[in-house]
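Practice problem 4.
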């Protein structure tokens, strides 16, 4: 991609089924060229996670995903020791009357190490795309730990020594802004906001994912989804829901987005009871415009 730059990366992503705008493609290219992590923020379902998956595919790299959640700690993200295997080894050593220090040291050798995503990414280096998904769900302490790891890409395991990536993987962090991330982490990353696409581009995206869908029906669904986003919904639908809605209409054999077809398939696009009530009360406006 050295010659084509942004245009070539955009085309490559499109071949992989992902339609990126110029701003996103530029951020991804800079991350690749500069070896910098990329922080993608935006609403749920706008394609932040999907772009990392597509990049790994089109670049021929391993995708390593760390799904963040409340309470995640460093051991769950880095490595753990396989205690069950260690206990079996202890029993075997005891039965064989092997109690020397060398035998005991074997308990903390590579065969008993359970590799978690961050250690796997350090070992894989630039043969991997590391996706740190929904980093905003983790707590402040874990975020601080990530900052240190992203600075030097090395991990010290007391029993085995330091493992360092010769060349870092491409790192993509995603956030749905359930909380504000610290400035220190943002300064370490390139930043891009992934918003809802324009209707014309959203139609393109859906047709790229559901090529068997009728363009006229897809355009009506996209228009309806944009009206849904104008309502005060607790969880406005993202592009992923637009794709699901078109697929659902195709499954039930709907050739048009009628009120009945919309009611039959609303569960593919509306995921909260209060939102369902709101949409039902405004169905004429949503479907008919």
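Answer key:
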């Amino acid at each position: 991609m050295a010659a084509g730059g942004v245009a070539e990366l955009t085309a490559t992503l499109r071949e992989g089924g992902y339609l990126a705008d110029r701003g996103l493609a530029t951020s991804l290219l800079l991350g690749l060229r500069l070896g910098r992590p990329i922080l993608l923020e935006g609403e749920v379902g706008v394609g932040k996670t999907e772009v990392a998956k597509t990049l790994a595919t089109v670049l021929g790299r391993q995708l390593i995903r760390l799904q963040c959640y409340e309470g995640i700690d460093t051991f769950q993200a880095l490595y753990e020791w396989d205690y069950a295997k260690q206990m079996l080894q202890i029993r075997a050593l005891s039965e064989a009357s092997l109690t020397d220090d060398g035998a005991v040291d074997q308990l903390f050798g590579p065969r008993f190490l359970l590799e978690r995503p961050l250690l796997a990414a350090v070992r894989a280096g630039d043969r991997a795309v590391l996706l740190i998904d929904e980093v905003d769900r983790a707590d402040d302490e874990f975020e601080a730990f990530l900052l240190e790891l992203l600075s030097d890409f090395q991990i010290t395991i007391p029993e085995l020594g330091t493992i360092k990536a010769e060349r870092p993987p491409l790192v993509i962090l995603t956030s749905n802004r359930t909380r504000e991330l610290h400035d220190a982490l943002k300064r370490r990353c390139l930043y891009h906001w992934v918003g809802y696409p324009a209707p014309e581009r959203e139609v393109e995206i859906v047709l790229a994912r559901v090529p068997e869908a009728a363009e006229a029906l897809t355009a009506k669904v996209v228009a309806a989804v944009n009206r849904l986003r104008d309502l005060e919904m607790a969880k406005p639908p993202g592009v992923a829901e637009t794709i699901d809605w078109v697929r659902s209409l195709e499954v039930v054999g709907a050739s048009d987005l009628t009120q009945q077809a919309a009611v039959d398939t609303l569960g593919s696009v509306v995921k909260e009871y209060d939102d369902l009530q709101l949409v039902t009360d405004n169905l004429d406006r949503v479907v008919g415009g």
